[in-house]
Amino acid sequence: MTSYPDFDAVVVGAGFGGIYMCKKLVDQGLSVKLIEVAPDVGGTWYWNRYPGAMSDTPSMLYRYSWDLEDLQQYPWEKQYLQQHEVLAYLRHVVDRHQLRQHMQFNTEMKAATWDPDHSTWTVGLSSGQDITSRYLVTAIGLLSKQNYPEIRGLDSFKGEMYHTGSWPASYDFKNKRVGVIGNGSTGVQVITAIADEVKLLRSFQRHPQYVVPAVNRAFPPESRRDINRQWEDIWKQAKESMFGFGFEESQTPASSVTAEERERIFESAWHKGGGFNFMFGTFCDISYDEVANKEAADFIKRKIRQIVKDPVKAEKLIPTEHYARRPLCDTGYHPGPPNG
């Protein structure tokens, strides 16, 4: 007697990737069950609701490319999306395409076993249920688990402790002393967002960071109308570029221009905003040529010294390594051009 699997496909995770796979499989006429450990869709954008959480991919590209009508109609206000805006967009897509009926929330995949004799997967769920499928798609992403540092005394800390990857729905930092461990992309956003509401803020950093302004400017209606006329070209450029961030990566070596022209290009990128734009839109060799890298690094160091008036504090914020980590941008970590 032939036994049939419960579903054609099981998808694990309801972030950008899982939602897309669910739609693609449903469109092909397959029966699909998507399981998600969170109470709703969003993936990393559901859990990472910490203060200041923001995408640094331009708003016009931080969305799906396959629904032209939605691209033209769905609103956004600024150059970059805040966490709650990304989450609202993903919920909108799921409801617009009636995908929620295929989803099971508050459910974790505990095991997955392949049966070669019947060419099926058996997926064990946290509910105690086992389901079978022909295909298994894992879309859990890179940021699905919280990473707690091994710091002496962390387990005996008596105060409130939050992880940005599982931020509570409500919190109150007013008149409290707050320490932030880490100053990468997430740490910079948290520090900037809570600085004005806490009694004391202490940043624990292993390495100072090269940070440029985000310049999260508002999108006027005429700019949106221009974009709506160019979606085909916008996506073509993004998909054919090296990084897909919506700008033309530079083909110019830093050493091929005069010092004055190099300074002008860096200054223009600084005021335009965006970490990836600064590293890859100015010169083509910052990421692999030591001289070019030093020119970019020295420019940012000069900016930090200009902005941070306390020379002792400025030196604590100035990196000593190559400009080679993930490009960061901020909305006030170092006060810069207007953001909005």
TrEMBL record:
Gene3D superfamilies: FAD/NAD(P)-binding domain
Lineage: Eukaryota, Fungi, Dikarya, Ascomycota, Pezizomycotina
Alphabetized GO MF terms: flavin adenine dinucleotide binding; N,N-dimethylaniline monooxygenase activity; NADP binding
Protein name: Cyclohexanone monooxygenase
Keyword terms of this UniProt record: FAD, Flavoprotein, Monooxygenase, NADP, Oxidoreductase
Native organism: Fusarium oxysporum f. sp. conglutinans race 2 54008
Record's signal peptide: none
